[in-house]
Amino acid sequence: MSDMTYYVELKGKKYLVTNQNQLTNRELWDDDIRDWLAEKENLELSEEHIAAVDFIRKTYERRKQHPMPRVIASDLAKRYGADKGNMRYFYSLFPRGVHQAVTIAGLPLQGLCF
Q1: Who has the most CB within 10 Å: 5, 8, 11, 110?
Q2: Would 47 be classed as within a structural domain?
Q3: First-to-last CA distance in the chain?
């Protein structure tokens, strides 16, 4: 069964999302929909959340695949120090794991196999 969709309007811009809060067109992703998706995931975004989401998006655009969670954690370590470059810290940011981070990044879950 396919997901139902509906429109969300933020600051005069409409976004089509699924009933599971997946953005249907990643080209429309911006800070407003990122923040809305995070709110739906019950997350208040910190600088580290935003850095992880941006890294996921950039990696996906460059490689056409989702980065592994340990690669995301490694990027966080480079930016914020070794104490923030491990899986425990990643899961403190995104308790539901990489699926939650990818959802906030506005990317498809298809092809995500971890």
Answers
A1: 8
A2: yes
A3: 22
